[in-house]
Amino acid sequence: MTTATAQPAPIRPDWKATTVAIVGTAAVVMAATILNVALAPLMGVFAVDQPTIQWLVTGFLAAMTTAMLVSAWSVERFGIRATYLGAMAVFVVGSVMGALAPGIGWLIAARVLQGAAAGVIQPLGMIVVFHAFPPGQQGRGFGLYGLGVILSPAAAPVLGGVLMDLVSWRATFLAALPFCLMGMVLARTHLPGRRPSETPPRPLDGVGLVLLAATLAVLLWALSRGLQIGWTAPAVQGGLAAGTIGLATFLGWEARCAAPLLNLRVFRSGVFVGGFLLTVGVGGGLYASTYLIPLYLQQVLGMTPSAAGLVMLPAGLGMAAAFPFAGRLADRVSRVAPIVGGGLLFVVSCGLLAVAGTEPAVGWLVVWTLLGRVGLGFMMPSATAGALVQLDRKDVPQASGAMNFGRQLGGSLCVSLVSIVFTAAAGTHGDGFALLDAAGQRMALAHGYQVAFAVLGVGLLLALTALRLLRRPAA
Fold first, then answer.
1. Quick one: pLDDT at residue 5?
2. Measured between alpha carbons, how far is residue 426 from residues 230, 308, 450 in Å?
3. End-to-end Cα spacing for the chain
4. What is the CATH code of the structural domain delimited by 6-191?
5. Looking at the predicted structure, is the pLDDT value of residue 242 above 60?
6. Are 107 and 101 in contact (CB under 8 A)?
7. How far apart are CA 322 and CA 325, in angstroms?
8. Whole-number mean pLDDT of the chain?
9. What is the Cα–Cα distance from 420 to 427, expressed in whole angstroms?
10. What's the average model confidence in pLDDT over 417-432?
11. pLDDT tens digits, residue range 28-65?
């Protein structure tokens, strides 16, 4: 952080500021997963297919990916309190807009607003906790903060399912509002404002922001339309080409920009590149499986949204429990072992879900889903620590931002890709699917999920090849 927002080290923990950080972050993180159990019913409500409904997830993640890179600039320019209040206000507007949405277009726009606000709030919460604890106690603060952040998305599918079954899908957009309002009230008195500084805040990289947002939007649109209008259609090929050119232009601009959104200097370290690629894979596995599993449970097994949420709950709790154990294991034994072991657990989980078919026992589904989440819980801390450990301390803040960016980027792209794989394998985009009877459609859907889970497992196996870079000794 710059001197504009530097805070004196506290003598004792500031629990009120920490509470604001946990409440705000838990509220916006909840929104990332609470709607997943509502996707299957929403397909029927709005008469849309998977390539369209997945925009409720990828739109949120893409906006979050982009906004994360703006958070640090906003803190420097406006201060912690104003940034927090502004982002929470945007989130509230997006939530109300989603609850009142008359159509799928409005719903997607609401999710984009929610994602943009979440992208600012999540890294901001870490800044608040860092300054709320004295040196030597910050690990304790981040432990409490991390526990709240992890438990929120674990409980969100259950809450979303109950609201779907007892109230309406619209209620899922309003579930986080009490926490948002409580956080905003507390923030006005317990978060610091912007402190005067002799050095002006760095300028916003507006060119990079526009390039990144446009590139992600065009790429995701082209991927989602490929099966609907054909991969050889000029619009699709033009979109893919424009997205590729946009990505190259964004990277070129960031390399030359004096105050870039994404500092590419940290990518000169091969070890960091290895950790970054693993993090992209972990983000893809986390968000894509969270997208696929509730849809499979409802569309193939006929579960209610609340039942699907309950199946997901032990997996979320297991992932939360794996985090601290994995961190200690990485410190005492090896950073490679938790990554390999966790990756193989996730691959086994995907393989078991791929062969589950149409009549699996619910108890086994809980176990298989739990295996995958525990695997990801082992991978995340080790990949992050392994990527950052050999960097200079001055590069760690930029590198941490890049890791968060990679995790969200992997999630948005992977959700789009597994949706394409499912749609192609199930044949739901063709006229023949509508001619099948109910049993035939169920079998087609089961086959689509079988292939999607298998591809997801293979994708994480490919991500594990980045370990060759992570194990490279420091130059």
1. 45
2. 16, 21, 9
3. 28
4. 1.20.1250.20
5. yes
6. yes
7. 5
8. 85
9. 10
10. 85
11. 888 888 888 899 899 989 988 888 898 999 999 899 98
Predicted model pTM: 0.85
Query: HEC string of 327-356?
Result: HHHHHHCCCHHHHHHHHHHHHHHHHHHHCC
In angstroms and rounded to an integer, the radius of gyration of the C-alpha atoms of the chain is: 22
Give the chain's largest Cα–Cα span: 72
How many beta carbons lie within 10 A of that of residue 367, not counting itself?
14
H or E segment to which residue 144 belongs: helix 138-166
Q: Give the alpha-carbon dihedral of 390, 261, 28, 76, to 10 degrees.
A: 100
Which of 316, 356, 365, 346 lies closest to 414, judged by CA?
346
Distance, CA of 415 to CA of 417 (rounded, Å) = 5
Phi/psi for 7 (5° steps) reads -120, 145
Token couple for 410: 């992997």
Fold of the domain spanning 268-475: Growth Hormone; Chain: A; (1.20.1250)
Q: How many CB atoms lie within 10 A of CB 34?
A: 26
HSE-CB at 268 with a 13 A cutoff on CA atoms is: 10
Looking at the chain, the whole-number percentage of residues with pLDDT higher than 70 is 88
Please give the single-letter amino acid code of residue 78: F
Q: Which two tokens stand for residue 298?
A: 């409802």
pLDDT bin (cut points 50, 70, 90) of residue 475 is: very low
- Token pair belonging to 454: 């298998």
Q: Which two tokens stand for residue 15?
A: 């629990």
Question: What number of CA atoms fall less than 13 Å from residue 421's CA on the CB side?
Answer: 21
Name the nearest CA neighbour of 270 among 373, 430, 391.
Answer: 391
- Could you identify the residue written with the tokens 């309003």? 174
What gap in Å lies between CA 428 and CA 448, rounded to an integer?
9
Q: Higher pLDDT residue, 107 or 378?
A: 107
User: What's the pLDDT at 138?
Assistant: 58
Tokens of 219: 């790429």
> What residue has token string 């200690």?
328
- Please answer whether residues 329 and 337 qualify as being in contact, where contact means their C-beta atoms are separated by less than 8 angstroms: yes
Residue 472 has pLDDT above 60, yes or no: no
pLDDT of residue 3: 40
Query: Does the structure show a pLDDT above 70 at 11?
Result: no
